[in-house]
Amino acid sequence: MSENAASHMTSAPIASNSRIQSLDVLRGVALLGILLLNILGFGMVAAGYFHPSVGLGENAAVNYTIWGIVNLFFEGSMRGLFSLLFGAGIVMFTTGIGTRSGREKSPMLHYKRTFFLLLIGMFDAFVLLWTGDILILYAVAGAVLYPLRKARPKTLISLSILCLLFSSAVFAISGSVMEEARDAAIEIDSNPSESHSEEKYQLAELWTSSENQFQYNESAMQKELEIRQGGYFEIAEYGAKNVIENWFFFVPLYMFWDCVGMMLLGMALYRLGFLSGKRTKKEYLRFTIIGFSIGLAVNGFELYQGIVNDFDALVVSGYFQGTYHLGRVGIALGWLGAIMLFCQTNVLNGLRLRLAAVGRTALSNYLLHSVLCLVIFSGAGFGLVGVLERWQLYVIVVLIWSLQLIVSPWWLKRYAFGPAEWLWRSLTYNSKQKWRL
After folding, report:
1. Which of 11-20, 119-128, 377-386 has the least mean pLDDT?
2. pLDDT class for 205, splitting at 50, 70, 90?
3. How far is the C-alpha of 56 from the C-alpha of 47, rounded, in Å?
C-alpha cells in the first residue's frame, strides 16, 4: 500500500458532526415506517401479515381499509428504503466518499463491523424473540457486497436490476407452483379413493404444509397463539425453530436477493448524491412523481386483484407476484424524493430534527421495537398477541412513534450515540467510545 493510500486508511470512527442530516431523516422515516409492517408480526399470528381477514373484530370496514392503505404505501417500500440506506452506509463507511473526513476504512474493520451486527441481530432474534429480524440478513449482505464498494454507479444499478429481476422471477414461479400445489390438494381431497401420481401427492403436501402461513385457519392460529401466549422459554424455542427454518429456505430464496438488490441501488444512489441531498429539487420532484405513479399503479392493480379474488392468499401475498418489486421500488423511490424535498425546505424544522435523531439512533430504536413488543404482546409480558384488532395495533404504533420522536432527541442532547450504536462502535473499534457529551 502506498503512503498516500495508507494516509486515507483509518480505524477511527466518524464524528457525529460529520453526519449527513438528510440520510438521518431518511433512516428515521424508514425505521418508523418499518413498524407499520412489523407490528403485524409482533401482534398477530403469522397469517395476519398476509391475510387481511385476521384481526377484523367488530370494525371490518376500518380494518380492511387500513390493510389496503398499508399495502399501497408501505409494505415492502419501507424495508426497501431501509435497505437502500444500509447500502449507502457500506459506501460511506468503507470508502469515506461523501463524508467530511473522506477517510477509507480497512477491510478488516468492515468485516468486524458486520460480524458484530450479526451478533446483535442474533440477540434480537433469539433473545428478544423477534423472528422477523432483518439485522442478520443485513450483516450477511454487507459482507458479500464489500468488493463492490468502489464500483461505478452504472455497474451497481445494473447489478441491482439483475438481482431484482431474478427475485421477481422467483416470486412469479413460486406463485405458479403454489397454485398447482393447491389445485392438487383440492383434487386429492375431492377424490381420496382415486389413485394419483406421486408428483401430485408431493405438490399437495407442499400446499398443506404451508397453507397455515397464508390461509385463515382457525385451529392453526389458535395453536400458534397458545405457544406465543405461553412462557418466555416456550416462545423462545418456537421462535428459534422458525428463524432457523427460514434461513434454510425462505431467506436465501426470497429475502436475500430482495435485500442485495436494494442495497446495490442504495450504493449507487449515494454515490450519485441522491441520498445525501446533493441533487436539485426538480430531480427529487421527478423521483417523487415517477416513483409514486409507477408504484401506486402496480400496487393498486395488485390490491384490486386481491379484492376481486376474495383475498386469495396467492394473490394478496407479494411473494407470489412477479410485479411485486416494481411496485415496492417505485413507492420507495417516491418516498425518497418526497423526503429529500422535505429536507430541502424550511417547514416543520422541529419534526425534521426529531426524525434525524431517530435515524441517528436507528439501531437502538429498532431493538427498542423488539423490547416493547416483547413486553406488550408475548406471554412473557402482557400476552396481547392475537387479542387486538388491526386498527388497535396501529394505535400502539403511533404511541411507539411518539415515544421515539420524544426520547431520541432528548437522548442525543446528553449522549453522542444511542446505546446500541455505542456498543456496536466500541466492539468494532475495540475500544470504549466516548459516550457522554
Report:
1. 11-20
2. confident
3. 13
Which positions ≥6 away from 386 have C-beta within 8 Å? 43, 44, 45, 221, 225, 228, 229
Distance CA 26, CA 36 (A): 16
Rounded to whole angstroms, the Cα distance separating 224 from 176 reads 28
State the greatest distance between any 2 C-alpha atoms of the chain, in Å, as a whole number.
Answer: 79
Instruction: Write the DSSP symbol of residue 251.
Output: I
| Cell numbers describing residue 114 | 458486520
Other beta carbons within 10 angstroms of residue 392's beta carbon come to 16
Residue 415 per-residue DSSP state: B
The CA distance from 413 to 193, in Å, is 72
Residue 104 has pLDDT above 90, yes or no: no
State the DSSP H helix or E strand holding residue 153, giving kind and residue range, or none if neither.
helix 153-190
Task: Give 290-335 pLDDT, tens digit per residue.
Answer: 999 999 999 999 999 989 988 888 888 888 889 999 999 999 999 9
Q: CB of 217 within 8 A of CB of 54?
A: no
Contact between 81 and 336 (Cβ < 8 Å) = yes
Provide the residue type at 322 as one letter.
Answer: G
Q: How far apart are the first and last CA of the chain?
A: 37
Domain ranges of the chain: 3-429
pLDDT tens, position by position, 341-373 = 999 888 899 999 999 999 999 999 999 999 999
What 3-state DSSP class applies to 338?
A: helix
Q: Work out the number of other CB atoms within 10 angstroms of the CB of residue 287.
A: 22
Give me the chain's average pLDDT, please.
Answer: 88
The one-character DSSP state at 143 is H
Contact 124, 133 (CB under 8 A): yes
Any residues with CB less than 8 A from the CB of 387 and at least 6 apart, and which? none
pLDDT in tens, 52-75: 888 888 889 999 999 999 999 999
Cα–Cα distance measured from residue 430 to residue 368, given in angstroms and rounded to the nearest whole number? 25
